[in-house]
Write the structure tokens for this entry.
Amino acid sequence: MADDKKNDSLTGAERAAILLMSLGENDAAQILKHMGPKEVQKVGVAMAKTANVTKEIVFNVVSGFVGEVEDKASLGGSEDYIKSVLKQALGDDKANQVIDRILVGHSSKGLEALKWMEAKAVAELIRTEHPQIIAIVLSYLDADHAAAVLALMPERARSDTIMRIASLDGIQPTALNELDSILEKQFSGNNAVQSSSVGGMKTAANILNFMDSSVESEIMDEVKEADSELGQNIEDLMFVFENLSEIDDRGIQTLLREVSSETLVLALKAADEVLKEKIFKNMSKRASEMLRDDLEARGPVKLSDVEGAQKEILAIARRMMESGELAMGGKGGEEYV
């Protein structure tokens, strides 16, 4: 971190890193114990990059933290406050991954311990388990972690595992508790499992999104051969319009050259702001201004027309992905250098 970086430009992870480093090793370690693996990694990276921080920045970070605490009448830990702090520190996406576990008590040390393990270790641990148990375990992991574990499994088992994950429709708490107890014998802790919301087609789709594209294609071919409807449903969830924001800038520019202005305006009518900004920044200033004006001037349109335009663009993107002209983030595509 540069020594001239302004305090108000620090990310949540950078502020957390500075605060932890100002506390000393023992206190910082105690705080990190209460954080999830992804959050520890994010803050850890920020700590590793932190150097030459001025006393003024440290003072401002610590003072800001103390001020936030003092603003509260009590330390009761209201849900709104916890959610606000987590989102400021981690961002919406990361915070939403842990809010339920923190506020509703969905943590489980037996299963949770797997999230700290390398993919190879998890794969070795579950390789002899019943396929349904493997599906439940992978459903419980973060999608990128589950994808890495799945890639280490025998090829013949991958499509079956994905189909089992997609077919999961909630797990009885008692069954999940039993699985957790088995894992706890190898780790530690005895928290009760209360969550039964694991698995489903979206989970399967998210895992496949992080697989290498060639492996993902093989798995999907096998799934479709066994159950064409299930395969199509999973594929539809894997590739939605908002996912286009994960394409790199060069890919977006290439894609835009293949899309008509009218189709683009219709498609963006119901797009989120992240994708809109991605599109705008990859157009010339004049083209971007014209598109913004067209969007503002366009009155209400039928949702079916918007969805049709989005599907048209997705079809073009799929074709370009198959030909190697662009790649989605997390789909195993090679980076440009």
